[in-house]
C-alpha cells in the first residue's frame, strides 16, 4: 500500500478508536425518551442526502412536490411520517421477487423502484475503517451499554434448541461471507441467526403469522391496535417509549406493520447495542402491559391514522373489494380500526385474549443479524426468547369458505375514484400454488411464468398492442394477495382517457392473449429463461441493510424450508407443465372479478343509487357478467399482433470481476506465480446451489494488497475537457458483475427552467424517450439492466445500470434515442391532422397525448394531496427565489399551440445545444471501458460546452427576522385534516467558517429533536397521527433548515403552531438538563451513522454521485463530519438552539405554513398563532410579492 494511503488508513483507525473511547462511558446510562420509527426517516432518506430526516429542495424530476410525496411517504405504513406501526392492506412487503419476472406483487400502496438512485445520495462509507471482527474496544463497549443487562449466561442448549440447520446446509449468494444457522427453540419458535463481522448496524425482526383476519368481529382493527400497544410499555420496561429511546440513542430505529395474516416488528441498532436492544424487544412478546392509561390515547392515534386514509383511493378501493367478498371469510373485515370499533367496553380484555391466543411461539419467526458469532447469537435467542409462550394455536389458518366463491366471481364492478384515475383490473381466484398441496408449485412458480408472459412489454405482447392504440399507461400481472387458503392472480391496467372508452375491447384482448397461451401450451424454454435470470439475480444478490434482510427472511421462514430461506423466492428448479396448464385453465371469465375504476363515475345521474361502502363511503355498483360477455371472452381469438415473446438477447453471460482480474494481473506483474487466480465464471443448474464461490484465498499476497488499495480510493477523474468530466471507480468492495453509469447534463439559464413552457416540454421529452425505448428495453429490464431519464430544473439525468456484460448495448441505444427522437417529434408538427396513413407518426401522437394527459392528471390531482404535502409544497414556494406553480405547468399542457410534439423538439434542440456534463462510471468496469462508454454518449449529444458562469443560480429567499406566515385552506373541500410546517432557516451549510460545524450541529439537533417532538406532540398531546421533525436542505449554495410537521383532524393550524413553539421550549430545557453521559451517547450515535459502511454497490454509487452531481467533490465528507461532530459540546448545541429556534433571538428566521381544513369554522381558518407573525400571506400572488 502506498505510504499516503497507509497514513490515511491509520489516521481514520485512530479516529475510530478515539470515538469509541470517548463514547464508551456515555453508553452506560439508561435512557429516557422515545423515538418510534424515527430513523426510518433518517436512514431511508439518508441514502438521498441526509444524516437525519433531510428533505431536499428542488432536485426532483418535476418542480413538483419533492418534499415527502405520497409516492415516498405512503408506500406502506413503514414510512417516516406515518410513525409507529401501521396497517398494510396488501399481504405484507415484497419477499424479494426475482428480477427476471414481471412485477407480480401489486401493492395497494405506491411502491418505489429498485433502480439506481439518481440525485443526491450519501450514506457514509469509510472503507479503511472496515472491521472484520469485533475488537476488544467493541467488546468493552458492548458489555457496558446498560447496567441492567449482564452477560448472557450459558444455557443447556441441548434442551433449549431442539433442531439446527447449519451454515453449510443453507443456500446463499455467491461471495456471501456471512455465517448462518437456523434453529428451533423448544417452545416452537424458529430463529435464523446471521453473523456478519463487518456490519455497523445490527437488526432483528419478529414475524407473527396473525393479522387483521384474526380480529374479533366485535372489534375490527384489533390486531392493528394490538401492534400499536406493544410499543407502550412492558413489565420489564414499563416506562412508555423506553425501548425506542434506547434505540434512538444508539443510532437505531424501529417500526412494525400489520397485514392480513401477518404482523412484523423490527429494529436496527448500532452493532454494539444488539444485546440490550434484544432484551427490550423480547419483552414485547413476553410481558406487554396494555396499560389502561394508554388505551384512549392510542385509540385516538389509530383513529387519526384512519382519518388520514379516508380520502386515499388505494384504501377506498381495497375496502370495496373486501366488502364485496364472502362475509364468512375474514378478508371482508375493516382492517385499520377507528374510535367507533375500538373505543368501547371490553377492548383491553380483547387485547389480552388476542395476545394469549395468537402471540404464540410456533406462529413466530425471528431473524437476528449481528457481528457476534453464531454461538453468541444463539445464546441471545435462547436467553431472551425461550420463554415466549406456546399457546397451542395451530400455525395454519383454516377458513370456512373462500373469500371469492361462485357468488362473488363472474362479476363486473364499477368503483368511483376521488382522484383522476382510470383503470381496469381482472382478478382470478386460484388455489395455493406454492403450498404442500400444490404439487411442486413452490419450486416451479407457475404464476411467475404467467405474470412474465401476460405482463410482458416487448414484441408480440398485450402491453405493446394496447399501448400502440393509445389506450393504456401501464399493464402489470401477478399475485397481489395470498391467503392461507387461496391466492389471487390479477391483471392491472392503467387507462388513458381514450382507453376508458374501450373497456370492452381491452377485456376482450386480455382474454384473447390468455386463450393464446392455452393454445400454445406451456413452453419450457420460457420457464428456463426466467429460471436462469432468477438464479443469476440470487447468485449476485447484495443484501443491503441488515434490517431489510431481517424483515424479509423472518417473513420467508413461514414459506420456505430453512435451507432455502434466502434462495427460495429465486429458485425455479422444477418445470411442471401440468400445473401451468391447470392455472392457465382457471383464468376464465367465470372465475374472475372485473373492476373498472374511474373518477367520472361520480357524475353518473343515478350515483346516489349506487352502493356505498361502510367505512370509507366509496360509491360502487356490481353485477353479474352477462352471458354474452362470458361467451365472447371465452372464444376471443388473438389478432396477429399478439404472440409469445422471442428469446431474451440481454441475458448476461460474462461474469468476470474486473477488480479481481486487475489485482491478480498486478500481482503477477510483480513477479509472482501465474497460478494466482480467482474464480469469476458461473456454472450451475440454474438454481444457484452449486455456483462458483469467489476464491480470493487463491490470490497472491500482493494481489490482495492491490485489491485492498483499490477499496480505499474515491472516484478518479479519468477525463476532463471543457464542459465534460468523466469520473470512474472500479468496484473492489462488493465484487458483483454490475456497474452504474450516471450522467448529469447541466443546462443553462435558458435551459430547463427558463420558463414553465421549457420545464413542461423537458418533462414530456423525458417521458417520450422512455416510451420510445420501452419495447427495446423491456427484455433488458428482465435481464437485470435498468436505464432512466428524468428532468430536473437544472439538468437532464440519464442512468444505465446492471450487469456489465450487456451494458454498452443499452447505453448506446439510450444515447442514440435522446437525439434521434427530436427529428421524429419535429416531423409530427403541431397537429395529427394530415397524418392519415402514416402509422408510425400516428402512434407517436397517441403516445404524446397519453403522456400529456398523464402529466396533466398528476397536476390536477394536487387538490387531493394530503394537507402536510400541500404545506411542504408552499414551504418551498416561500423559500425558493424562483419556482413555478403546478397550475402554470397545467396551463401549458392544456395549450394546443404550446404543447405539441414539434414544440418539444424546438425547446429541446435549444436546451441540448449547450451543456455541462458530469459522468460517473462505478462498478465492474475499468477506466478504459468507462471512457469508451462515456464517449458513446458524447458522440450522440453533439453539444457545445456551457460555461460555468451560465449555470442557473438556485438561491433561496432569506426569511426575515420577524418571520413569515402562509395561511391557506386545503384545496380538497372534503379534507378533515389540517397541517402545519414550521420551518427555521439556519443558514448556509458551511456557516461562518469552512469546518462544516453548522451542518453537524443541525444533524445532532435533528437526531435528538425527533424523539422529543414525537413523544410530546404525537404520544402525549395527540395532535395528529403524522408528526415529524426533519432537516430541509435547499438551494445552491445549499442552505440548511429545520422543520417540524404536524397533521391532524382535531385542531386548527394556529393551535398546532402554538404547540410546536411550546415543545421547542421544552426541548431546549431537555438539552440543558441532559447529563453529559446522555449527550455523549447521542453524539456517538450520530458519529456512527456518519461512519456507517455502504451495504450495496448502489449505495456507494449514490454517495459518490451526491458529490459529483452537486459539483462539490468532497469525497471525504463523512469522515470529516464525524470528526467535527465528535468534538461538539453540549454548550455549543444549546447555543445553536438558542440562536436559531428560541423566541426573541435576533437570528431566528421562522417560516410557518398553515393548511387548514375547509371544514373548520371561519374564525379558526384565519386565526394567528399566539406569538404572532410578521408577513402574513394568503395566496400565491402574496408569496410572489413578498419574495
In summary, what is this structure?
Its cofactor is Zn(2+). By secondary structure, the protein is of the alpha+beta class.
Description:
- The chain starts with a helix and ends with a helix.
- It is α+β, with helices and mostly antiparallel strands.
- It is globular and about 80 Å long.
- The strands form four sheets. The chain has a seven-stranded mixed beta sheet, sandwiched between helices. The protein has a seven-stranded mixed beta sheet with strand order 2-3-4-8-5-7-6, with helices on both faces.
- The protein has four domains: 161-386, Metalloenzyme, LuxS/M16 peptidase-like (Cytochrome Bc1 Complex, Chain A, domain 1); 411-542 and 567-635, Cytochrome Bc1 Complex, Chain A, domain 1; 716-945, 2-Layer Sandwich (Cytochrome Bc1 Complex, Chain A, domain 1); 964-1186, 2-Layer Sandwich (Cytochrome Bc1 Complex, Chain A, domain 1), CATH 3.30.830.10.
- The longest helix is centred in the middle third of the chain and has 27 residues, at 756-782.
- Helix 15 crosses helix 20 (577-585), helix 24 crosses helix 28 (886-894) and helix 25 runs parallel beside helix 30 (927-941).
- Residues 1-154 and 672-700 have low confidence and may be disordered.
- Its cofactor is Zn(2+).
- Residues 348-531 form the Peptidase M16 C-terminal domain.
- Belongs to the peptidase M16 family.
Amino acid at each position: 500500500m502506498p505510504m499516503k494511503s497507509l497514513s490515511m488508513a491509520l489516521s481514520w483507525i485512530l479516529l475510530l478508536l478515539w470515538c469509541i473511547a470517548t463514547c464508551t462511558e456515555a453508553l452506560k446510562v439508561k435512557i429516557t425518551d422515545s423515538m418510534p420509527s424515527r430513523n426510518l426517516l433518517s436512514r431511508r432518506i439518508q441514502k438521498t442526502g441526509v444524516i437525519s430526516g433531510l428533505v431536499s429542495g428542488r432536485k426532483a424530476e418535476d418542480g413538483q412536490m419533492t418534499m415527502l410525496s405520497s409516492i415516498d411517504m405512503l408506500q406502506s405504513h413503514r414510512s417516516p411520517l406515518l410513525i409507529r406501526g401501521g396497517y398494510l392492506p396488501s399481504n405484507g412487503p415484497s419477499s424479494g421477487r426475482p428480477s427476471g419476472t414481471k412485477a407480480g406483487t401489486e401493492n395497494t400502496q405506491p411502491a418505489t423502484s429498485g433502480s439506481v438512485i439518481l440525485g443526491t445520495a450519501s450514506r457514509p462509507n469509510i472503507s479503511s475503517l472496515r472491521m472484520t471482527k469485533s475488537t476488544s474496544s467493541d467488546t468493552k463497549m458492548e458489555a457496558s451499554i446498560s447496567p441492567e443487562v449482564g452477560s448472557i449466561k450459558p444455557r443447556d442448549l441441548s434442551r433449549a434448541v431442539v433442531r439446527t440447520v447449519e451454515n453449510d446446509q443453507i443456500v446463499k449468494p455467491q461471495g456471501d461471507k456471512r455465517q448462518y444457522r437456523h434453529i428451533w427453540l423448544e417452545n416452537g419458535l424458529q430463529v435464523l441467526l446471521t453473523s456478519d463481522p463487518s456490519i455497523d448496524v445490527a437488526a432483528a425482526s419478529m414475524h407473527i403469522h396473525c393479522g387483521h383476519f384474526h380480529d374479533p368481529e366485535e372489534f375490527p382493527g384489533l390486531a392493528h391496535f394490538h401492534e400499536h400497544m406493544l410499543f407502550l410499555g412492558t413489565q420489564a420496561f414499563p416506562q412508555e417509549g423506553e425501548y425506542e429511546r434506547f434505540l434512538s440513542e444508539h443510532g437505531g430505529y424501529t417500526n412494525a406493520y400489520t397485514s392480513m395474516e401477518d404482523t412484523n416488528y423490527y429494529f436496527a441498532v448500532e452493532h454494539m447495542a444488539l444485546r440490550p436492544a434484544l432484551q427490550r424487544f423480547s419483552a414485547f412478546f413476553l410481558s406487554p402491559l396494555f396499560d389502561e392509561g394508554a388505551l384512549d390515547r392510542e385509540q385516538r392515534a389509530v383513529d387519526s391514522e384512519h382519518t388520514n386514509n379516508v380520502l386515499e383511493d388505494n384504501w377506498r378501493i381495497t375496502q370495496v373489494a373486501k366488502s364485496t367478498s364472502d362475509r364468512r371469510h375474514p378478508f371482508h373485515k375493516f382492517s385499520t380500526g377507528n374510535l367507533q370499533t375500538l373505543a368501547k367496553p371490553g377492548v383491553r380484555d380483547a387485547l389480552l385474549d388476542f395476545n394469549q391466543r395468537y402471540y404464540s411461539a410456533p406462529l413466530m419467526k425471528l431473524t437476528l443479524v449481528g457481528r457476534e458469532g453464531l454461538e453468541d447469537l444463539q445464546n441471545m435467542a435462547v436467553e431472551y426468547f425461550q420463554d415466549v409462550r406456546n399457546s397451542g394455536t395451530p400455525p395454519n389458518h383454516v377458513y370456512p369458505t373462500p373469500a371469492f366463491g361462485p357468488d362473488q366471481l363472474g362479476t363486473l364492478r364499477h368503483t368511483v375514484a376521488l382522484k383522476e384515475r382510470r383503470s381496469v383490473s381482472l382478478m382470478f381466484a386460484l388455489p395455493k400454488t406454492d403450498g404442500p398441496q400444490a404439487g411442486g408449485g413452490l419450486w416451479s412458480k407457475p404464476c411467475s411464468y404467467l405474470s412474465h408472459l401476460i405482463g410482458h412489454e416487448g414484441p408480440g405482447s398485450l402491453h405493446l398492442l394496447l399501448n400502440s392504440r393509445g389506450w393504456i399507461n401501464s399493464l402489470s400481472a401477478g399475485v397481489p394477495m395470498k391467503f392461507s387458503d387461496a391466492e389471487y392472480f390479477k391483471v392491472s391496467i392503467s387507462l388513458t382517457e381514450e382507453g376508458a372508452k374501450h373497456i370492452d375491447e381491452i377485456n376482450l384482448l386480455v382474454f384473447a392473449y390468455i386463450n393464446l397461451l392455452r393454445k400454445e401450451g406451456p413452453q419450457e424454454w420460457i420457464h428456463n429463461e426466467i429460471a436462469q435470470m432468477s438464479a443469476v439475480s440470487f447468485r449476485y444478490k447484495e443484501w443491503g441493510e441488515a434490517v431489510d434482510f431481517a424483515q424479509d427472511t423472518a417473513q420467508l421462514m413461514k414459506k420456505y424450508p430453512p435451507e432455502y430461506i434466502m434462495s427460495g423466492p429465486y429458485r425455479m428448479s422444477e418445470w411442471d407443465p401440468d400445473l401451468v396448464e391447470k392455472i392457465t385453465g382457471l383464468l376464465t371469465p367465470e372465475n374472475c372479478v372485473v373492476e373498472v375504476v374511474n373518477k367520472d363515475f361520480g357524475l353518473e345521474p343515478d350515483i346516489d343509487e349506487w352502493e356505498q361502502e361502510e367505512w370509507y363511503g366509496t360509491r360502487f355498483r356490481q353485477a353479474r357478467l352477462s352471458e354474452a360477455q362470458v361467451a365472447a371472452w371465452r372464444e376471443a381469438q388473438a389478432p396477429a399482433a399478439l404472440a409469445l415473446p422471442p428469446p431474451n438477447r440481454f441475458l448476461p453471460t460474462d461474469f468476470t470481476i474486473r477488480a479481481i482480474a486487475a489485482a491478480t494481473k498486478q500481482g503477477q506483474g510483480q513477479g509472482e506465480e501465474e497460478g494466482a487466480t480467482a474464480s469469476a465464471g458461473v456454472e450451475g443448474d440454474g438454481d444457484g446451489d452449486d455456483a462458483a464461490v469467489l476464491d480470493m484465498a487463491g490470490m497472491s499476497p500482493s494481489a490482495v494488497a492491490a485489491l485492498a488499495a483499490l477499496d480505499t480510493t474515491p472516484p478518479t477523474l479519468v477525463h476532463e475537457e471543457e464542459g465534460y468530466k468523466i469520473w470512474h471507480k472500479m468496484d473492489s468492495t462488493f465484487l458483483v458483475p454490475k456497474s452504474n453509469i450516471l450522467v448529469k447534463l447541466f443546462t443553462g439559464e435558458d435551459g430547463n427552467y427558463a420558463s414553465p413552457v421549457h420545464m413542461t416540454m423537458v418533462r414530456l421529452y423525458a417521458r417520450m424517450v422512455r416510451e420510445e425505448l420501452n419495447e427495446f428495453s423491456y427484455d433488458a429490464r428482465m435481464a437485470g439492466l435498468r436505464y432512466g431519464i428524468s428532468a430536473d430544473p437544472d439538468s437532464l439525468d440519464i442512468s444505465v445500470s446492471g450487469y456489465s456484460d450487456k451494458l454498452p448495448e443499452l447505453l448506446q441505444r439510450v444515447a442514440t434515442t435522446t437525439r434521434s427522437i427530436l427529428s421524429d417529434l419535429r416531423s409530427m408538427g403541431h397537429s395529427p391532422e394530415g397524418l392519415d396513413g402514416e402509422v408510425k407518426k400516428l402512434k407517436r401522437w397517441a403516445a404524446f397525448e397519453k403522456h400529456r394527459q398523464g402529466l396533466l392528471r398528476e397536476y390536477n390531482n394536487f387538490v387531493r394531496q394530503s394537507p402536510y404535502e400541500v404545506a411542504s409544497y408552499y414551504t418551498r414556494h416561500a423559500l425558493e427565489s424562483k419556482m413555478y406553480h403546478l397550475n402554470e405547468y397545467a396551463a401549458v399542457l392544456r395549450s394546443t399551440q404550446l404543447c405539441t410534439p414539434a414544440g418539444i423538439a424546438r425547446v429541446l434542440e435549444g436546451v441540448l445545444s449547450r451543456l455541462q456534463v458530469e459522468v460517473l462510471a462505478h462498478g465492474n468496469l475499468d477506466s478504459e471501458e468507462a471512457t469508451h462508454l462515456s464517449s458513446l454518449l458524447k458522440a450522440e449529444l453533439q453539444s457545445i460546452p456551457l460555461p460555468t458562469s451560465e449555470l442557473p443560480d438556485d438561491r433561496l429567499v432569506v426569511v426575515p427576522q420577524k418571520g413569515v406566515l402562509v395561511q391557506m385552506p386545503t384545496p380538497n373541500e372534503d379534507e378533515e385534516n389540517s397541517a402545519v410546517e414550521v420551518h427555521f432557516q439556519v443558514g448556509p451549510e458551511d456557516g461562518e467558517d469552512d469546518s462544516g460545524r453548522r451542518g453537524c450541529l443541525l444533524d445532532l439537533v435533528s437526531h435528538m429533536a425527533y424523539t422529543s417532538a414525537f413523544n410530546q406532540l404525537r404520544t402525549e398531546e395527540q395532535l395528529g397521527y403524522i408528526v415529524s421533525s426533519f432537516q430541509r436542505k435547499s438551494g445552491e449554495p445549499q442552505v440548511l433548515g429545520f422543520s417540524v410537521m404536524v397533521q391532524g383532524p382535531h385542531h386548527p393550524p394556529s393551535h398546532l403552531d402554538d404547540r410546536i413553539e411550546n415543545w421547542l421550549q421544552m426541548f431546549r430545557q431537555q438539552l440543558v438538563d441532559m447529563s453529559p453521559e446522555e449527550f455523549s451517547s447521542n453524539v456517538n450515535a450520530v458519529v456512527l451513522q456518519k461512519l456507517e459502511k455502504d451495504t450495496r454497490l448502489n449505495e456507494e454509487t449514490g454517495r459518490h454521485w451526491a458529490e459529483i452531481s452537486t459539483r462539490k467533490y468532497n469525497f471525504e465528507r463523512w469522515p470529516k463530519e464525524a470528526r467535527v461532530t465528535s468534538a461538539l459540546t453540549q454548550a455549543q448545541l444549546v447555543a445553536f438552539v438558542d440562536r436559531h429556534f428560541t423566541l426573541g433571538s435576533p437570528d431566528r428566521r421562522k417560516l410557518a405554513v398553515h393548511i387548514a381544513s375547509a371544514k373548520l369554522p371561519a374564525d379558526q381558518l384565519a386565526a394567528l398563532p399566539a406569538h404572532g407573525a410578521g408577513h402574513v400571506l394568503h395566496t400565491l400572488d402574496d408569496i410572489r410579492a413578498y419574495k
